[in-house]
Amino acid sequence: MIKMQYLGTGAAEGFPGVFCECPACQKARILGGRNVKMRSCTLFNDHILIDLSPDIFAQSLRWKVRLSDVDHIVVTHSHSDHLDPYAVFTRAKHGATILPGRPKERDIVNLYGNRQVGRVISDGMALEARSDPDRIRWHSVETGEKFSAGELTFIPLKANHKKDEVCYIYAVSDGTKQLLYGNDTGELPEETLEMIRRLGLCFDVVSLDCARGTLLGDGHMGLREDAALKKTLEAMGAAKAATRFYLNHFSHMCGLTHDEFQGLAEKEGMTLAYDGLTVTI
Fold this sequence. Notes:
By secondary structure, this protein is an alpha/beta fold. Helix content is 25%, strand content 25%. The protein has helices at 23-31, 56-62, 85-91, 115-127, 190-199, 223-235, 258-267, and strands at residues 3-8, 41-44, 48-50, 72-74, 109-113, 136-140, 147-149, 152-158, 168-173, 178-182, 203-209, 239-248, 271-272, 278-280.
């Protein structure tokens, strides 16, 4: 079984945007509820994170997450809304994080990501004199090469996001169920679709980027790209009739709040994810 909890489902600036006063952000502040979205970050099986949001402190309090239990952090790319290096350094800093009665091995947090993510972590650690590098175990990942994080396996698949960095989406499995965690990315590269075909992946749940909303995609997807990818995955056998599709990383760009956009997503057979949503596979 895979338990996936969206701790945050917003894009880089959050929703409402930190300093934004556009009509959609003003409306979200008034309406609250699912219309308010912290930066994207997702927890698996209560101890594995995909990405480390700059909102992780507030998210842990809001959803009562024991971050001391997190021992694996899988990173999609180096953008600061997906990787908060200072939180990692705090985790490794003597006095800042006290884990009494824990075996030494439990003090270690495993981080996984591309080479740019590794540089962000190593460069930052060099500036944090009291952070203990022995509390961090770094794992560099490569396209298509399966790795294990706890009881789950991950396959890095190339995203279409930054031109100067190999960004990843991830196929996630517990050995029985499979999930595609797909943000940040625009339309998937053909080589990624081909790798999904070649590996024979068939997903029970698909989580996709929808930062662009009703707008055309760029380095992010919008509803049109999400709907097209849904059809593509179904046609190639990577999704089935029972596959559930969720949209994540939603922003104010298209001018619609969560409540206003959800109906559009439902017409395409997809659900707009919201902060705190838990999906069990």
